[in-house]
Automatic annotation (TrEMBL):
Its EC number is 1.4.4.2. One of its GO terms (cellular component) is glycine cleavage complex. Residues 370-475 form the Glycine dehydrogenase C-terminal domain. It is an enzyme of class 1 (oxidoreductase). This is glycine dehydrogenase (aminomethyl-transferring). Residues 1-20, 477-497 are annotated as: Disordered. Pfam families: Aminotran_5, GcvP2_C. InterPro entries: Aminotrans_V_dom, GDC-P_C, GDC_P, PyrdxlP-dep_Trfase, PyrdxlP-dep_Trfase_major, PyrdxlP-dep_Trfase_small. Residues 176-297 form the Aminotransferase class V domain. Keywords: Oxidoreductase, Pyridoxal phosphate. It catalyses: N(6)-[(R)-lipoyl]-L-lysyl-[glycine-cleavage complex H protein] + glycine + H(+) = N(6)-[(R)-S(8)-aminomethyldihydrolipoyl]-L-lysyl-[glycine-cleavage complex H protein] + CO2. The keyword Oxidoreductase applies.
Length: 514
């Protein structure tokens, strides 16, 4: 792009509107390729620096940042945002992730200056409203789960798992039972469960699932021993099923002197309907960014508060909010506290505001209805597609996720991955593929309560049409997909293992002699 000496665009360069290709599918260059390091994006008079007060710490080399005008920078980011599927642009049936609509009321509340413009080191007397919000959110989380305490600060589900298991470890040590070094994890568990246990030095002992997709209480009893510190059980489980023997499992675990960690990432299916405390759980993380609609994806901020039973409450980390003589106070030090803090400051304030807004705007009855609608939507999809797709566990009604497997693709030459890529061309984010691992070629669909019947019908029509096309031998539509996305198929492993995170200035090759 041509610019004047102060970096103002002077004409329509190649990058003036969008980079190349069609306006809606831009091949977006980097900021460094749009602008250049020789120009500034703003009109500033030249300053003559005679002296400064930086004491010799002044920058010696140029900063080498690309100079862009505000519209150029803004358009770059807006164009980038359009390259990705998002819950704001279409249905996102990614199982286990609860990609539900984030009501705009949540955003409005999170942007109130009393929540968004405060600093964690401000005197508590000046942030009473924020503390009250944290207190109120804690109250709702404990009430919905019937538990004795909550730690708000973990920043994701996996982080909450780590905290919950640290509390269990501390509780076992306090009982003089540090020799308990085994954690039971059902085979259908999310990968974060065994990873958490292993990270804390536990030996993971898998518990096999029954043919119907649920955890066998007899298998749990057989695996329990004086070495077992805890079980990590997901309920509803990752096959989309409510564990029918969960109370019996909890009883057996407690009788054996172990704790019951529940992976509560699937709380969306039962919030307001079932209180996990009544099922005998000792610790459970709640993904505010799933169940309570706060935005997530792409590594965005999450929040994974952990509720704790009476037995584990004394091991809750700091900080927490408490009523004091002069209003609410933040308890940041407790004598002999086992865990201390697990995050800098207090956690994700913006997510707390969004989650509480979601709770208050729904009310207790509204939350229960949201859970029931999520379950209804998943069962609707299962019922509509069960003759087209294959259903691995037909015996139970499903909870908030419909699980299919890829046996309907057998002999078609179309793989599960091909099928997922073809969904992109139809305007849907693919469902979760190849998870849970207990089902070969799993396809996990989670519509959430925020989709209308029209959207569900369109989704089912498209899925059925795709499945029938695959069976009819039209393989190319699948193996070549996605055709209507900015990129074809990526080497995802390489992208994850060898990401290119740094822009290097291209080396100027000497011009050939004319
Ligand atoms: C999402 C999820 C997790 C992990 O939560 P993060 O916030 O992604 O760390 C754990 N278990 C289950 C079942 C999940 O769906």
């Amino acid at each position: 792009m041509s610019m004047n000496t102060q970096g103002r665009p002077t004409g329509i360069g190649t990058l003036g509107t969008s980079a190349s290709g069609s306006a809606l599918l831009p091949d977006e260059p980097l900021l460094f390729e749009i602008g250049d390091t020789e120009h500034s994006g703003v009109d500033l008079p030249e300053v003559e620096l005679t002296s400064n007060r930086l004491g010799g710490f002044g920058r010696k080399r140029k900063l080498d940042l690309a100079g862009l005008t505000e519209p150029e920078a803004m358009r770059h980011y807006v164009r980038l945002s359009r390259l990705n599927h998002s819950i704001d642009s279409g249905m996102y049936p990614l199982g286990s992730c609860t990609m539900k609509h984030n009501p705009r009321l949540n955003e409005k509340m999170a942007r109130l200056p009393g929540f968004s413009d405060i600093h964690p080191l401000q005197p508590v007397s000046t942030v009473q409203g924020a503390l009250e919000l944290m207190n109120e959110l804690s109250h709702w989380l404990m009430t919905l789960t019937n538990t004795a305490a909550v730690a708000l600060s973990p920043k994701a589900g996996a982080h909450g798992e780590l905290l919950g298991m640290m509390a269990i470890k501390a509780a076992q040590e306090a009982k003089g039972e540090a020799h308990r070094t085994v954690v039971l994890v059902p085979e259908s568990a999310h990968g974060t469960n065994p990873a958490t246990a292993a990270f804390l030095g536990y030996t993971v002992k898998p518990v096999p699932a029954k043919a119907d997709g649920t955890v066998d209480v007899e298998a749990v009893k057989a695996a329990l021993s004086p070495e077992v510190a805890a079980i990590m059980l997901t309920n509803p489980n990752t096959c989309g099923l409510f564990e029918p023997q969960v109370i019996e499992i909890a009883r057996a675990v407690h009788e054996a002197g172990a704790f019951f960690y529940c992976d509560g990432a699937n709380f969306n299916a039962i919030m307001g309907v079932v209180r996990p405390g009544d099922l005998g759980i000792d610790a459970m993380h709640i993904n505010l960014h799933k169940t309570f609609s706060t935005p997530h994806g792409g590594g965005g901020p999450g929040a994974g508060p952990v509720v704790l039973s009476e037995a584990l409450a004394p091991f809750a980390p700091v900080p927490f909010v408490r009523k004091g003589a002069n209003g609410l106070e933040l308890v940041e030090h407790v004598e002999d506290q086992a865990l201390g803090r697990v995050t800098a400051f207090h956690g994700q304030m913006g997510m707390y505001v969004r989650a509480l807004t979601y709770m208050l705007s729904h009310g207790a009855d509204g939350l229960a209805q949201a859970a029931e609608d999520a379950v209804l939507n998943a069962n609707y999809i299962k019922a509509r597609l069960q003759d087209v797709f294959s259903v691995p566990f037909p015996d139970y009604p499903t909870m908030h996720e419909a699980l299919f497997d890829d046996s309907f693709l057998k002999g078609t030459g179309v793989t599960t991955l091909d099928f997922a890529k073809a969904m992109i061309d139809e305007g849907f984010h693919p469902m979760t593929m190849y998870f849970p691992l207990v089902v070969h070629g799993a396809m996990l669909v989670e519509p959430t309560e925020s989709e209308s019947k029209q959207t569900l019908d369109r989704f089912c029509d498209v899925m059925a049409e795709l499945a029938n096309d695959a069976k009819a031998g039209n393989t190319e539509r699948f193996t070549a997909a996605p055709l209507k996305a900015p990129r074809r198929r990526l080497d995802e492993t390489r992208a994850a293992r060898q990401p290119v995170l740094k822009w290097e200035k291209p080396v100027e090759l000497p011009k050939a002699a004319e």
